[in-house]
Amino acid sequence: MRANTLIMIVLAGVFGVLAVVLANIWLANQRSALAQSNGVQASTIVVAAMPLKFGDTLSADKLREIAWPAGAIPTGAFRTTKDALSGNETRQALQAIGANEPVLATKITGPGQRATLSAVLGEGMKAVSIRVNDVLGVAGFVFPGDRVDILLTRTVRTDGGPDKSFVDVLLQSIKVLAIDQVADESKDSPTVAKAVTVEVSTKDAQKLTLAAGAGQLSLALRQAAANKGETTERVTLSDLTGDTPDDVAAKQAELAKQAAADAAAAADRKRADDKLSGLAQAVERVGNKIDDLSKVKPAPAVASVPQAKEIAKEEVKYVPPAPPVRATVGVFRGIKLETYDVPRQD
Questions:
Q1: How do residues 161-213 score in pLDDT, each as one tens digit?
Q2: How many helices (H) and strands (E) does the chain have?
Q3: Residue 298 DSSP symbol
Q4: Residue pair 147/200 in contact by the 8 Å Cβ criterion
């Protein structure tokens, strides 16, 4: 290869690199000029470099900084990773944070704080737990972070009448903080829970505590975006069947009467069974006594000495009978026999 050709190749490469550098500088200037013309100043914000779960400890490898318009920085956001990790104490995530999601002060603990349920509570809010089961807890499909309505079912006794049952919507759009002892919102597998912890105000906490002893509490899962309350009405037995209150009262009275009759019949059967049982026990006792008597050997009989008796002698004398006074005489007349009763002559 000739020297001139080699020189031309080197110069072409140098000019190419120079052209790329100059183009990048020009584009950067154009972006800066465009931002300044729109009145937008560039800034940075701290986001999660990887998905974070409840209780994860923040560190430099889990955070990163990205460009963000200075006038649109969210409240509670951190501009630098150093600000997010400021202090000598560690911080933990209070809820699930996705990758590239801004890390806000409300989503993490303060320096040195633990990721506990008390750190998740809002200002002036309280955490109250209610007991549920596989049915009342929506079959385990309620997760931390969901919103639910709390229903109260109770039965009220009336003076001289049947009991009345009804259901009221006690609280609406209540945030679920934890299921049993799990407060991780990233959990997505249904589990049957025994207790649900919700976030309520002080007055609502009093209502829940009182309602837990007054009736049965159950949950109704709300749509994720449906956070507003709605007008509700009390539901009674008449709403289920379309009967009037008098009809429902009559049916309940009939059921109560039938229950009383069944109880009386059961009591009569019990008394009869008790009598039969007592009679059987008496028969068994008599049988046992007879068995006991049959096992006793009788005393041997003592033969008595025969006593001499005086024999009386009787004399028998024959007395001839008196001869008959009349006699019967038979006379044949041909082949016919005729009898006659005539005086006897000696």
A1: 667 788 898 898 888 888 876 666 556 666 667 888 899 999 999 999 998 88
A2: 6, 10
A3: P
A4: no
Three-state DSSP class for 336?
A: strand
Same domain, 86 and 145: no
Domain-embedded: residue 102: yes
From the CA atom positions of the chain, what is the Rg in Å? 58
Do 236 and 130 sit in the same domain of this protein?
yes
pTM of the model: 0.47
Q: Are residues 209 and 106 in the same domain?
A: no
What is the structure's pLDDT at 38? Answer: 57
Residue 139 has pLDDT above 90, yes or no: no
> Tokens 């008599």 map to which residue?
286
Q: What DSSP line would sit under 190-237, residue for residue?
A: ----SEEEEEE-HHHHHHHHHHHHHSEEEEEEPPTT--S------EEH
What Cα–Cα distance (Å) separates residue 154 from each residue in 84, 136, 218, 259, 322?
A: 50, 14, 11, 21, 121
The span from the CA of 91 to the CA of 81, in Å, is 12
Label residue 299 by pLDDT band (50, 70, 90).
Answer: low
What's the number of domains the chain is made of?
Answer: 3
Token pair of 192 as six digits: 């049957």
Q: Which residue reads 């009093």 in tokens?
A: 206
Q: Which of 153, 148, 198 is nearest to 173 (CA)?
A: 148
Is-contact 196 129, C-beta < 8 A? yes
pLDDT for the residue 204: 92
CATH number at residue 101: 3.90.1210.10
